[in-house]
Input
Amino acid sequence: MDELRTNSNANNAATADVPRAEPLDAEHARRVCGNPAALKKAVFASRDTRAVGLQASIGALMLMDRLRFIRTIDLAFHLYAGRTFTAALAAANNLLKRLTRNGFVTAHTTRVGGMRIYGIAQRGVNFLRDNTGYEAKAHRSLKNVKNPEHRLWANLIVITAEARGLSAMTESEVLRYERENGEVVRDNCGAESVIPRKLLTVPNLRRPGERKGLTPDALLMEEGDDRVWIEIDASNRSSGRVKDCLALVAKIGSRLCDPEQMRLAKVVVYARTRRIYTHITGLLRKQAGAPVEPASTYLKPAEREGAFEVWYHPSIADDKPGKPARDFRCGQVQVQMLPDIRNGGQGWYDQDWLPYARGTE
Output
């Protein structure tokens, strides 16, 4: 999982053989949220604008191939993290105009929300193959994308996490990973199929006695084996999804079902509206006041608004001779509002916001 593709900056293996583009190795400072100097970014030695433009074009097309479609804001966060928000947005807008004019990307305005999204065209696929040897796949159904807001937000979380030095997976990459590590079974006719190995399973309330798998909107890899589970709530949760959320929180501190035995250290829930934020925090606050059962987790409100510490209450079986087991902190859950990026660059890299607020951690 550590070999997953990370932020496709210009300075990577895919663009090492591109003519006239000679970037220096990226310089990395200690990662601190709100410190733009700690972001991953390449420093170019060449002042040849054509070479720099070539690297930016390759980075944009690689991002479109990975995420399938992007916005101007996504490209600004991806390629121009070291600039101010206004400068980054202007540079990303100019780059997309040039790529569209050259036929490398196609553009479409969604019916819901009126968002302008871009996908890689066949000519862009050919451009990547000729310059990097990378085989991309053109997006041939951009007009069929109706309401991509949820997916775009999740992808932006991945982009910002990688810019801050973390490895990250989108939802589709998690599903692919689960399938690759799944169980191969054969039916009566000898045909093979794969049963995905879900990272996390919870009780299926609709089918008592069975379990169902949950999939994150994004999964971030912290230091060691700690993982951060991202949920994007763009609409109010139904009763079933509310119970799934509480079951997910109860799993914090446990090991995920994968070969690497990753630990679920944190769950971050992003809310699109204040009403959704109030609803989720209210549920967690109510859960924090519930009776504590042995051998289970419980919540404690943290100092930061919307954050709750997750503690484990051991049972008698966890006691050692002469040394009773004590409660211990096993993780955290926090609820945040999605930033209004168009409003003065809210959530940009000079703020402690994306991929999630750290505060004094």
About this structure: Helices lie at 49-67, 72-79, 85-101, 122-132, 149-163, 171-180, 239-250, 274-288. The mean pLDDT is 84. Residues 89 and 174 are 29 Å apart (CA to CA).
